[in-house]
Description:
Blueprint: H1 7-14, H2 17-44, H3 47-69, H4 74-105, H5 111-132, H6 140-169, H7 173-207
Helix pairs in contact: 2-3, 2-5, 3-4, 3-6, 3-7, 4-6, 4-7, 5-6, 6-7
Transmembrane segments: 23-50, 56-74, 81-101, 113-133, 153-170, 176-195
Pfam family, one: Cation_efflux
GO molecular function, one term: monoatomic cation transmembrane transporter activity
Amino acid sequence: MSGCCSHSACDASAASPRFRQALWIALIVNAAMFVVEFVAGLAAGSVALWADALDFAGDAANYALSLTVLSWGLMWRARAALLKGVAMALFGAVVMARALWAFQHGVSPEPLTMGAVGVLALLANAGVALMLYRFRAGDANMRSVWLCSRNDAIGNLAVILAAAGVFGTGSAVPDLIVALVMSGLALWSGLLIIAHARRDMADSEQVHP
């Protein structure tokens, strides 16, 4: 398989107990942080926090789906990754539209809440990303899991920078710019996952015509 190991090796890696345990930890962390960031985002009036909270929710769903298909064949894992890629791309498009709307109607968020929650989310996601780093070169399903955790850590750094920008300027613009960047990253990553999943599906068809 292009960019991966042999099919049998990838299948074994994807179904390994360590990968399954890592997914369970990632699922619990993301579900908990979704609740924290969603409440904080609404309280602070931050589009970036709100976007990051929805990203946590999407990632928790992705991890649950990944756990479901671990023992399935390459074709089904690729189909699951394709579904996740489409969901990630759609999420990016929705958040981008929401941020553009907020440019015209939004008010300045509360920066201290943004910064504190951003730091907490960064610590959570950095730990998950480090835990999943070893699995980043697997099939499309495993790669999508790594991309989710990596994007979250990047997004958290951006939220912290946005909080500093809002605090320094008193404007909502830094918050909205970060929301746009995060939505663009989600859209691009979703397209990468879709492309990888399609390659895996093509490889599977060659092995099992």
